[in-house]
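Memo to structure team: turn this sequence into C-alpha cells by end of day. - J.P.
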Amino acid sequence: MCESGRKPRIVESGESTAAVIILDADMGSYPLIHPNWVFLRLFGDTVEGIEAEERRLFYVALTRSRHSLLIMSDDESRESQYVGDIRRRSRLELIDWDEFAPVPSLDGARVEVRVFNAYDVRDELTLLRFRWNDRGKYWHRSFMAADFDFGALCRQPWAQTGVRIEVYSEDGRLLNGKPNTEIPPDPGTVEPTS
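Reply from structure team:
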C-alpha cells in the first residue's frame, strides 16, 4: 500500500504514472538472460535479441514516470550496464540509505541475526530459513524481538562450530554478539565456581 492508501498498480502499455521504481538494476538482472537461454533458440531468439528486448523494456520503464524515478542498485560497481549508459548521458543523484530511518515492522519489533564464518553449517542455516547476504558475506534471518532468546540460539549445535553471531535491532544497532568461540551459559544451569 502507498501512503495515500492506494494500492500500487501495473502501468499498461503507453500509460504513465506519477512515480516509477526499478528494483535490482544490477548486473545479472538487466539484462536478465537465463543460463539455459540455449532452449530459446528453438523459437529463433539469440542472446543479442534478448539483450535488445531487455534494453528496450528497461528504457520504456524509465519513460513512464511523470514526476519521480528511482533506480535501485546494490552499488555502482554492480549496477547494470543500462544504468551505466544513463550515467554517461545524465547526472544521477545517489541516495545514501543510511540517512533514512528503517520502516518499523507492522507486526511488532524484530531483530536480525547475522551469522559469519558459517560455511560448514550453511546447510543447517538454509533449513532454518537463514538467507545468504553476498554483499556482507553472512547468513541472516529476522525474528520477533519479543520471543527472541539469544542464549538459546547460541546453544544450538550449529552455533557451537566456531561461527560468529551478531544480533541487530530494526534501526541497525548491535544488540548482542558471540565471537567465534564463546557460548553463552544456559540460564537454567549453575556455573561452577572455583
